[in-house]
Specification:
The chain is of the alpha+beta class. The chain has 2 domains: 96 residues; 95 residues, Alpha-Beta Plaits. 25% of the residues lie in helices and 34% in strands. Strands 1-3-2-8-5-7-6-4 form an 8-stranded antiparallel barrel. The longest helix has 14 residues. The two termini are 30 Å apart. The model has no long low-confidence stretch (mean pLDDT 92).
């Protein structure tokens, strides 16, 4: 399961401070079993707000009970790194997602996120549409396909995340909105956190 944070920054805060304290690459709590999968920043203002996403792999929804217990504890009150991070970033919304497909390698120089309304399509149909798009657009590859758990997260209900070598490789898929039985709501281009161009 993926817990996705949709993050923005306070424009009054210098970007250097936001990037320093907003980098979630280290454990947020000692011994945490959660794994950060991707932390991305929207690049060249192509895509919807908020501008940042951080995706965490969690073992199950029960992990949220552990998080709340931790954040009510003395350990959390003494964790200066975590406190500074929560003051530096503005998590506007979060969502819970099932992983429908995942590539072995998630690292990329450039990412495309397609925000998809699957309408009444099932998981297999969603996987099939992404696989069909991957066959038509071989210069990029799908690395993560997520479907929201019920209504636990923002619209639309699915995220299709692609890796790309550069912007030029994205042009064919940006021109292709063919998603039979589904609706492509929005797209955005992203770089690894700290490498995004504002």
């Amino acid at each position: 399961m993926i817990y996705a944070e949709f993050i923005d920054r306070d424009r009054a805060m210098p970007i250097e401070i936001f990037r320093r304290f907003g980098n979630q690459a280290s454990d947020w709590a000692e011994g945490a079993e959660d794994q950060m999968v991707l932390q991305l920043g929207r690049s060249l203002r192509l895509g919807p707000a908020p501008s940042y996403l951080c995706l965490w792999e969690v073992p199950s929804i029960a992990r949220l009970d552990s998080w709340e217990a931790y954040f009510h504890s003395l350990d959390a009150a003494r964790n200066s790194r975590s406190l500074a991070m929560h003051r530096a970033i503005h998590i506007q919304r979060a969502g819970l997602y099932d992983v429908l497909s995942r590539a072995e390698i998630l690292d990329a120089p450039l990412y495309l996120i397609e925000y998809v309304d699957p309408q009444d399509a099932g998981d297999d149909s969603l996987r099939g549409v992404v696989a069909d798009r991957a066959r038509r657009h071989s210069r990029i590859r799908p690395i993560l396909l997520l479907r929201r758990l019920g209504r636990a997260g923002p619209e639309p209900a699915a995220l299709s995340i692609w890796s790309a070598p550069n912007y030029a490789s994205l042009e064919p898929i940006l021109r292709d909105e063919g998603m039979e039985g589904m609706r492509l709501v929005d797209v955005g281009t992203y770089r690894p956190f700290g490498e995004e161009v504002l």
